[in-house]
């Protein structure tokens, strides 16, 4: 997540992080995207952010993109 003015990264999560690599078998599937969505929501809330804009960068809203977005919503982010 990037601050509204674009000056800094407020929160981030990636399936390449050590904690994810131990918990999931592959970083490129729906279950990994779900875990990343949960984590980014937790980190954003810890930074005091609950409302965000979700930019899917032209990707269709299905599969991993959908899983990440739904997990983030279920864990408290609003977009």
UniProtKB/TrEMBL annotation:
One record GO biological process: translation
Keywords per UniProt: Ribonucleoprotein, Ribosomal protein, RNA-binding, rRNA-binding
InterPro entries for the chain: Ribosomal_L18, Ribosomal_uL18_bac-type, Ribosomal_uL18_bac/plant/anim
Keyword Repeat: no
Family affiliation: Belongs to the universal ribosomal protein uL18 family.
Protein name in the entry: Large ribosomal subunit protein uL18
SUPFAM superfamilies in the cross-refs: Translational machinery components
Domain of life: Bacteria
One GO CC term, this protein: cytosolic large ribosomal subunit
Molecular function terms, GO-annotated: 5S rRNA binding; structural constituent of ribosome
NCBIfam families (UniProt xref): L18_bact (TIGR00060)
